[in-house]
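Deliverable D4.2, example record:
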Amino acid sequence: VKAASDSVTATVKGADSSLRSLGDSIKADLKDAAHKVKEGSAALGNKAKEKASEGINAVKDGAAKVTNAAKAGYEAGKEALKK
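Output generated by the structure prediction step:
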């Protein structure tokens, strides 16, 4: 009975150690995955900001061109009326 009890105790200790090791491994994997997701989200956010900025600049450039064309049209109309 003592030998069986010792055997069961050793098996439980081994299983407990294995479970702790597995738990530690899973915990490390989850931390790593969370870190990668965080980095990916930051990179995606930066890319979105960059694209938004490019879009805003394109709109500003377009507005400046329209303004310049309107001014040129106005000046041309003024000149045509003088003649």
